[in-house]
Amino acid sequence: MTHPFLDPAPLDAARFASIEDRVARLLGTRQDVLITQGEALLPLEGAIRAAAGPGTTALNVITGPYGQTFGHWLRDCGATVIDLAVPFHTAVKAAQVRQAFAEHPEIDFVSLVHAEAATGNTNPAAEIGSVTREHGALLYLDAVASVGAEPVEPDAWGVDLCVIGAQKALGGPAGVSAVSVSERAWARMAANPHAPRRSYLSLLDWKERWIDRGRAVLPHAPAQWEMLALEACLERVERAGLAAVTARHASAAAATRAGAVALGGGLEPYVREAAEAAPVATTLRAPAGAPAAELVARALAADPALPVAAGGGALAEEMVRVNHYGPDATPGAVRAALTALGAALAERGRDVDVPGALRAAENAWR
């Protein structure tokens, strides 16, 4: 007896390649695109280890936990790392990157997270790409959280390594991801004797066994369900139109921010400037005496499906995150999150205005 989840139809090389081509169209890139069989940490780490090594001087921009992780990988590769860290409630400025180049002209690699969903900020990737290209350095961009929520344009921005995942704004599974690779990046990898080879992390192995052979024979058995889910995500975005999908995320972010401000009770936006807030998720600072993890637990007790979470690690005490991405980038999801957070604050004796918050959210929805 067949089962739809246990007996999938074979996925051949042509179908695999066609899904890669759709990712390329999503990104508006003419670069090579590789779909990787795993969560986005796979290509994120693989790209760093392939392109950086002893002799690399990397500018590592830190606006959240992923930037910190990239710095660890770069140092582990033997690169000289210059950290450019800014407070998590803000974004890095292109002028700060330009100043780093002025102080360290030997920089030849820049690692940047576009949108830090964990901290709720988004960085000006286009402006930073312009600065990076002026100095001839490679730009590595983590666009896992931003793709589908805001524009991501590797070619126009001068991005050499752009990693995306399906699990955030595209509304898909966490088990499939992709990376676009420029010719400059391939050349850097080929010249790096420390780049992974004969390894699941090796992008060069994929290039030689897949791209260079005309994408005619898959080098391994594909993760079929994840690939089909990614294909479905891309079809959904194509039907709606990428501009409409990003506009929906921008509206969700604006509505959540406005609603939280109107709610009161001591809750306030964690990212201080709206222009620096990521469309994929809104982070909120919990009021003193009301730990974020406790507020979130109270909200989830009423509705476990709510798209809310406490910040990770030390941020669990002060940060509430409203994840309005993918299927949750809707007025209903925003209203539900605001209502539940208002109820949790009221239980702690805080003075809140839930009706006012919902009106403000509705008015802010673009």
List the helices and strands and how they pair.
Blueprint (H helix, E strand, L loop, with lengths): L12 H15 L4 E5 L4 H11 L5 E6 L2 H12 L3 E6 L8 H10 L5 E5 L1 E2 L4 E2 L2 H10 L3 E5 L11 H4 L3 E5 L11 E5 L1 H8 L12 H9 L12 H17 L1 H22 L4 E2 L12 E4 L6 H11 L5 E3 L8 E4 L8 H17 L6 H11 L2
Helix pairs in contact: 1-9, 4-5, 10-12, 10-13, 11-12, 12-13
Describe this structure in words.
The protein is an alpha/beta fold. It folds into 2 domains: 13-240, 3-Layer(aba) Sandwich (Aspartate Aminotransferase, domain 2), CATH 3.40.640; 242-364, Aspartate Aminotransferase, domain 1. It has helices at residues 13-27, 41-51, 65-76, 94-103, 125-134, 154-157, 183-190, 203-211, 224-240, 242-263, 292-302, 331-347, 354-364, and strands at residues 32-36, 57-62, 80-85, 109-113, 115-116, 121-122, 138-142, 161-165, 177-181, 268-269, 282-285, 308-310, 319-322. The strands form 3 sheets. The protein has a 7-stranded mixed beta sheet, with helices on both faces. It has a 4-stranded antiparallel beta sheet with strand order 10-11-13-12, with helices on one face. The model has no long low-confidence stretch (mean pLDDT 96).
Question: Could you give a short description of this structure?
Answer:
By secondary structure, the protein is α/β, with parallel strands linked by helices. It is built from 13 helices and 13 strands. The chain starts with 12 loop residues before the first helix and ends with a helix.
